[in-house]
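Quality-control log, excerpt.
Job 1 of 2 completed; input and output follow.
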Amino acid sequence: MTHPLTGSYWVAPGQLLAGLMHGLQDLSAGWPTAPPWREELKGLVDRFATKCRP
């Protein structure tokens, strides 16, 4: 299915997220422990969520 505005293929957000998570799992599978950037990313997301809250 193509997106009416862009004309490019439209991917359901759920599919995109599943693909992204699968890719991250593949990447992190090589590390014995969680890489530091994952904790950093989590911190950034937490900070952003806190800031955006009214």
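Job 2 of 2 completed; input and output follow.
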Amino acid sequence: MHSYQLLGLAAVGSLVSAAPAPSRVSEFAKKASTCTFTSASEASESISSCSDVVLSGIEVPAGETLDLSDAADGSTITFEGTTSFGYKEWKGPLIRFGGKDLTVTMADGAVIDGDGSRWWDSKGTNGGKTKPKFMYIHDVEDSTFKGINVKNTPVQAISVQATNVHLNDFTIDNSDGDDNGGHNTDGFDISESTGVYISGATVKNQDDCIAINSGESISFTGGTCSGGHGLSIGSVGGRDDNTVKNVTISDSTVSDSANGVRIKTIYKETGDVSEITYSNIQLSGITKYGIVIEQDYENGSPTGTPSTGIPITDVTVDGITGTLEDDATQVYILCGDGSCSDWTWSGVDLSGGKASDDCENVPSRFLHHCCSPPSRDSKFDLTFLVHNGEYPSAVILENKIVSKHWSDEERSVTATDNEENTVEASHYTDEGYTNVTLTEARSFKAQDVSRARQEILRFETRRLTHDNDMLIAMLQSE
């Protein structure tokens, strides 16, 4: 069934009635400015002639695409009721958009329902049934999608290859897949795009909330992500376009997910990841990694061996806070030699979980994020920091400034508080961790003390680790 609502014809009613009847309703629709479609085939065939399109309760036949790629420039497309799809094993997509200056929206209560449980088998795109991709926003320019309500996609939900598009207030709810075999149900996959702005999205799924594989000038803000793999750059590499640049992911929450934020590049591939900002991200219930940056992906999985062909540079991490499950790792960084640089991190405050012993080639100023914590039966209340002379060297014991001395040649650490109470540190040598008695008090200028206190407080609960230009130690009072 299909129908058309025609506007602007009242004044020529007699002419219309006198005209020969068209052989097909679709021919008559070509004269219409507003069209309501209830058939996928009619919508695909006639959408180019309509400036305002209503898709009402369309049931898309199995193995077919609701193809809206011929939409007229400047047109408005509105979904009404439930849009559904017949079952067939095929690659999809189930819906395809294309065009310029589009406005795509949903009527109250409307939903695009993939009924993904018919395909779910816990294998996603890694085997089992062939599952159709859900929605392609490809070859779209200068357009706005708002209030799109999607439910139970077979695999990946929204694929974006577009220029200057705004995706506002999407809801992607694949939570039914949690207990029914949903897998690889990415929320947004972005590639080969310039200017993609996503705001206010709610994503419940079993894979990345957002995955940016290539593109530039991309933002994701005000998002709520749960159940999946977190906020991801990558995996980058092995495609026609392998550059990710100028990305901001901010003011969002990630809950009950494997990861919080992550950047992943593919082993032995080439490309570039730069100008990445994660800001004000609240985590809870993270089961694997709070923050993970790794250059070792191959065939969709980490290898443990990083490569240097895709540098990760100019990364800002500001205000990543929240809680992890006991078995999770707070921060894991695995970089190739010299291929991670120019990072600026602040306000990383994660509780629960553990630190990693397996980080490699960490930019020196961020080594402390990967140190193992002290044993739980030790009471550490003093922090000691040396940073290659770049920052004031000081320690704090029970809120009092404590001086220090570090001699790289002698591999020793000395310090005492203002009342000459001796403290001890676990000190790393080639033979392993040893205890070191600390002596030799020294005074600090007021401005140095203030700055040192700010630096040191960030390194609470870290055991001593030595790098070419950084030493961080936890000191224990006697």
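Post-run check on job 2. The CA atoms of residues 68 and 193 lie 20 Å apart.
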